[in-house]
Amino acid sequence: MSSLLKEKNEDNDPILIDQYIQQQELKQKYGENLLNVLKNYSKGDFDLFNQFIQTLDYAIKSADNETGNNIKLALYEVLDYSEELKKDLTRTIYNVLLKIRSDKYNKIRDPKSYLFMSIKKQLYFGQVK
What we know:
Blueprint: H1 13-23, H2 26-30, H3 32-42, H4 46-67, H5 71-76, H6 82-101, H7 111-125
Helix pairs in contact: 1-4, 3-4, 3-6, 4-7, 6-7
């Protein structure tokens, strides 16, 4: 990843995001729709996009540990419910980011934690149990 950040500036961020997606094989892991939601919400800001990916990865690991199931395998591998799980996760993330963006009264004190808990809750109570 450090090679990606050598020439970082705002003009390069959308290019860095696309390179990062390819290098980390994120499209295969999460699907194109979820990545489009994260790219749109981050508005081409690589650091913000990277924070979303790190939060998503951490939520998956945390849900894996708590449930004892291999959610990562269910999400990344071609299993019967893999695509459905990705759709549910994409819908959850979209709704959470929309709610964070429209939070006029600052009811959401820690947006990153809210996103993390929402992802974890979706994975924990979602399709994989």
